[in-house]
Amino acid sequence: MASVVQRDPSVDRRRAAGVGQEIAIVLTDDWELRGNGSGDVETLQVRPAKRLMDLYEDLGVRSSFHVEVMQQLAFEEYASRYPHLARQRDLWTQAVESMLRRGFDVQLHLHPQWLGATYDGTWWKLGGTWHIADYSRQQIQDMIGRAVEYLNGIIKPARVVAFRGGSWGMGPPSRDVFETLVAHGIRIDVSITNGLYYNTAAIRLDYRNVDCPYVAYYPDVDDIRRKSDRDHGLIEIPTQSVPRSRTLSTLLNAQVAPRRACEKGAEAVRRLLSRQRTPAHVVRNAFDLAGEGREDHILDFSAGYSSAGFIRLTDICMRRALQNPTSPLRVLVFENHTKDLRKGWHFRRVADTVRHIRRRYPDVQFLTMPQVWARASELV
What we know:
Blueprint: H1 9-16, E1 22-31, H2 41-59, E2 64-68, H3 69-78, H4 83-101, E3 105-110, E4 118-119, E5 124-125, H5 137-155, E6 162-165, H6 175-183, E7 188-189, E8 197-199, E9 204-206, E10 235-236, E11 241-242, H7 246-254, H8 265-274, E12 293-294, E13 297-298, H9 307-323, E14 329-334, H10 344-360, E15 365-366, H11 369-373
Parallel strand pairs: 1-2, 1-14, 1-15, 2-3, 3-6, 6-7, 7-10
Antiparallel strand pairs: 4-5, 8-9, 8-12, 11-13
Helix pairs in contact: 2-4, 2-10, 3-4, 5-6, 9-10
C-alpha cells in the first residue's frame, strides 16, 4: 500500500498567521561532458536530457538547463577536421532547440578549462585551472562574451539571464567575473553552494563561511560570498545544501539505493579512464577531496542518495525556508548533472522527490530562471 504523505503543518500555521511569503523551487541542470573533456554528447547529454524532459512533462513542471558553452565552442573549432565532432556539435544544438520547443529554459554554464583546448583525434587536452576567477580580466571577458553571444543566437528571442560557474567557481576574487556577467545582461548567479571547500590543483575555492548560505542576496562585487547593502546588478541565489552531521550522514548512507549510487565527478572519470590507455594530459582526479576539501549535502539529484534520502534533504530545506521567512518570494535552487543520470532508478529519485513536494507542500511553485527574474523585486 502506498504511503500517505501528510501536508506540512507549518504551511497552515503560516497562512493562519498571515505570513505572505511564497516559496518556489527552481530545478536546474548542469548540461555538460566530463570536466576533463571525456565522454560523448549523445550519451552523456542528449539522451538523459530527453528522458529528464519527458519525466518533467509528465509531472507538469519545467526546469532550467545550464548548458556548457565553452565545450561547444571547442567542438565548433574542430568540427571541420573531425566529422564525428561535427555530428556531436549538431546534436548539442538540436538538443538545445528541443529544450526550447518543449517549454524548458536554457541558461549559461561555463567551464574555463576549455579555453584553448586542443584535440588530437581521440582526446581533448584542456588547459588552465577549473576556476574562472583564476583567469585574467581579458580572458574572462572573452569567454563570457563569446559564450553569451553564441547561446543568445540559439535561444533568441529569449536571452541569457542566469549563470552557474563551472565547478561552482565565482571567486573571490569576483569583480572581473561579476562585472562581465552584468555587462552581458546576466542578472542571477547560482554558483554559491554553502559548505564547499576545494583545494586541488584543478580548483581552489572556499564557500564554508557564506554570509547568506540559503537565501537570495545582493553580493559584494569583490567577494561573491559576502552580502552587500545595495544592488550592483546581480542577485546571488545559493544552490541549496544541508550541513553535514554524523546523524544525518548515517541516515543518508543507510538510505543509499540498493545498487551503487550514480557515479559522479572524479570517481566516474577514474572508472572510465581505468579501462583505457590515456595520455598523461587527461586529468584523472580533479576533485580528490581526501584531506583537500569537503562538501555539504548538496541538493543534487545526481548525488548518491535514494529517493528517501532526497526527500529527507528536501524536507530540511523546506522547513528551513518556512520557519525563517526573509522576503516575499523565497527561491530554493536544486541541482542536477544530466551526465550522471544513466539508469531508471536515477530518474525515479527525481520523480519521487517532485511528487513528494507536490503532496506535502502544495503551495510551492516550480519556476524557471526567467520567471524568477521577472519577480526579482520580491527576492531580496
